[in-house]
Amino acid sequence: MEIDENPNQEIPSAEASGITIRLDAFEGPLDLLLHLIRKEELDIANIPIARITEQYLEYLQIMKDLNINLAGEWLLMAATLIYIKSRMLLPPDPVAQTEEEAPGDPRQELVYQLLEHQKFKNAAQMLYTREEVETSVWHNPPQEVVEDGKEVVSATLFDLLKAFHDIVERFEAQRAMELSFEEVTIEQKLAEVRRLLLVHDTILFSDFFKDLKSKRHLIVTFLALLELTHLREIWVYQKKNFEEIYITKSKSSGELI
Amino acid sequence: MEMIELQAAIEAIVYVADDPVKLEQFKEVFPDESFDKIETAVKNLMQEFNARPGGMLIREVAGGYRMTTRPEHHEHIRAYLKSKPSAKLSLAALETLAVIAYRQPVTLAEILAVRGKKSSTALQTLLEKKLVSILGRKPVVGRPILYGTSKEFLIHFGLKDLSDLPTLEEFAQLAGDQI
User: Fold this and answer.
1) Interface predicted TM-score of the whole assembly (ipTM), two decimals
2) Which of A174, B27, B140, B141 lies 20 to 30 Å from A144 when distance is taken between CA atoms?
3) φ, ψ at B137 (rounded to 5°)
4) What span, in angstroms and rounded, lies between the C-alpha atoms of A151 and A159?
5) Chain A 85-144, CB below 8 Å of chain B: which residues?
């Protein structure tokens, strides 16, 4: 968050514009206090609480004028500051005996919180730097590894033709009568297959043809699969030669089929 | 197996591996070689490989070994790949992650106490990116969820293990000097 360095400046109200800015995604009240302390070059061990409270509230007002949606923690911090300020004004309790009754400097807790916060901000900075380095580094791209590394073989066009032939034969044997003349285009099929492969990693070749009502449907599906193989969007493989054929999305446009 | 041969084989494995390769995984490949010998081979390999002023490095990441390009070549690699730097984590996410990394296992309320502000959105991002995982529940009233960093966190930041992080005291020192 960068707010004008001069908080006394007249700032036009953004309320009328109806724009609400969410600040909590970026900075919190502790960040503002650290900013104020650093800007004013204040001694953290001896924070002039009246001055810092005043400035904190000024910033809060600016943010309100800018119609920034302030989360509860901003107001909580304001209350905490005012509380500390009032405590500082009171003379030490002369009858207090135990530690608990006279808990020393009322600013202590806040100072601890500020140092803690700064500590983790530094740690975040370190992570930022490390991430910067790591995003400048590449490692070996993933290979085509399928199903817990079992050896597989790419299916050839002939395997596909044979498998398709079997499917058509089974279809012919089962069907009673072809009634549906519903049109389907290769484009529609392509989209359908792509959609399916978004959901499933691997699909059995024969599953693509299940429940299809017409021979035309079968053929269009087959052509769509061939087209996708040609485009190298899918990879067709078998666990062993002449076994069931599986279809999977290819991770890269590697040397498939 | 000759040391030099073992070293070469390990180099080849590190090259093809997707994930950092652990010593135990090398042992599985070379069951006849002693753990010590494998470890020596890896260390020798790393030393020799990294002494070479080449484009690659073997690094210890997330408890294993991984071959990567040297960071200084990133501009050329990006020019070749025609890729832009990938999206980085927001400051809020990094701060939240720092609290989790150093205070784990930690609850959302404890993160809030340190950061002085709500952190649920940042935490959600970290969970989605799998940098943070759920470790269990704290046995107190309400049984809040405990969060910790994941293996993905180590890989993302190129860390050997959690002890590879600088200590919090170092940051405390720095914080004291800064304010």
Assistant:
1) 0.81
2) B27
3) -130, 145
4) 17
5) 113-128, 130-140, 142-143
